Amino acid sequence: MRITIDHSAKTPVYLQIKQAILAAIRDGKLVPGARLLATRELAQQLGVNRSTVAMAYDELLADGVVESFVGRGTFVARQTLAEVTALEGRASRQPPNRKMVWEGVFSERAQSPVVESLLDLYQVSTLRDVISFSGSFPDAGSFPTRDFRNSLHFAERTLGDEVYRYGPVAGYERLREYLAQRMREGGSDVTAENIIVTSGSQQALDLIARALISPGDTVAIENPTYPGAMTAFALAGARLLPIPVDEDGLCVEVLENVLRVQRPKLVYVVPSFQNPTGACLSWERRRRLLALAREHNLPIVEDDYGSHLRFDGDALPHLKALDDTEHVIYVSNFSKSLLPGLRIGWCAAARPVITRLMAFKQNSDITTSPLLQSALWDFCRRKRYDAHLQKIRPIYHARRDVMLKRLEADFPSGTVWTRPAGGLFLWVTLPTALDATELLYQVRQQGVVFSRGRLFYSDNPKRNTLRLSYGHVTLEQIERGMRVIGTTAKAMLGRGASRAAERFHTQTVPLV
Known about the structure:
This protein has helices at residues 13-26, 39-46, 50-62, 81-91, 113-121, 145-159, 173-185, 200-212, 227-235, 252-258, 283-296, 319-322, 351-364, 370-381, 384-410, 436-444, 475-495; strands at 66-69, 73-76, 131-132, 195-198, 218-223, 239-246, 249-250, 266-269, 300-304, 328-333, 345-348, 416-417, 425-429, 448-449, 451-452, 465-469. It has 512 residues and is of the alpha/beta class. It has 3 domains: 13-91, Winged helix-like DNA-binding domain superfamily/Winged helix DNA-binding domain (Arc Repressor Mutant, subunit A), CATH 1.10.10.10; 121-142 and 387-495, Aspartate Aminotransferase, domain 1 (Alpha-Beta Complex), CATH 3.90.1150; 145-383, Type I PLP-dependent aspartate aminotransferase-like (Major domain) (Aspartate Aminotransferase, domain 2, 3-Layer(aba) Sandwich), CATH 3.40.640. It comes from Chloracidobacterium validum.
């Protein structure tokens, strides 16, 4: 079956696809029971967005022309020639009062591959009917909801109407002072004037990208890395320059070689329990990275989602704590260690940087909730945050250990994995014959999901990798879920690698 698309025609592209499929059925080129190409495959063949093909298939499905089966695909249903001819005539005319056709309306950025990958990544993160090793969520069972509720009541009683008004763009002053003091205790030379409170660390990354990146600029970024950072920089127009990661974090020697021939605008790094590998940037590499920053006048964006979640070994200083020349822009949040729903993060940087970020935040959301900021300040000043960290570290330690035990016992020979000293997840590399997409498809049928590793790469993705999060699963769920993944991987290896499964059609959830 050959489909020709006329982008200059008044008929929407999805209706052209529908008409072509109906014509192929009428002419006998597609017989009852014939399997249609997967939406992604046909979209690539036609050079259109996958959602356009999905709209055409949905139309055919609604008309009863095709049948769709989860895990098997879409097939031509049994139709009489008269029925197909009638449907074909209807398809050639766009019905009146039809819903808005959004295809072709979205911006180039909204239809970019990086956005498609981001949506793909988070489609399975919060499914309720599965054991989910996807997403980097903290343990909901440990949420200090009663204590935080008390702090909310305190903030409301003490500050009154103030918490319901617009607050300072930079954030609630007392919270900023607390954050600055906490960072000074860790060795960073900052004051409240160097801090802006944001709606999670993702907003901080978006503001940094908008303030520092011009279209065409290059950003040196870990490979693999946090997809939210890739998206923030790519949507600002940056070209991503991938730098490999090993067991000691970012390969600084590779970056050093790159800097001899290229001048990236900045380098993005997650030095503590790197997302997704769980690796920690070594002491020597931290010092060398800062030396390169000084030598090349290179800003470093340090994303510290979870250095406070260490449960093994000695803590390493933040890059910001080692930085006496204001090259480091430090980003952190309370989402991974406290309550994700707060959506409170912060950025610490030189005053000129904070000033620019404030201008963009003013235009973005004016301010982060004063009520939540003031409640968080009260919660922290009463040492409840420190007590919470003391409570959850051994929980994550135990879960990581069970996950490592199951990797050793259940996964096929040739599998390798990281052993993080903290954080929320570890990284698995399967034997090269296995495809993590097919494995995900197989284990989803058994009630288990994980994050495919290929979605964390900006370049040269490895299809046999996956990220496993232990933050929000119980010990019993880890035992059962890991056994399912491991035994399924062994079975797949035994019968040979099969075709990659199609993407799941599930609800998209927030970036984490």
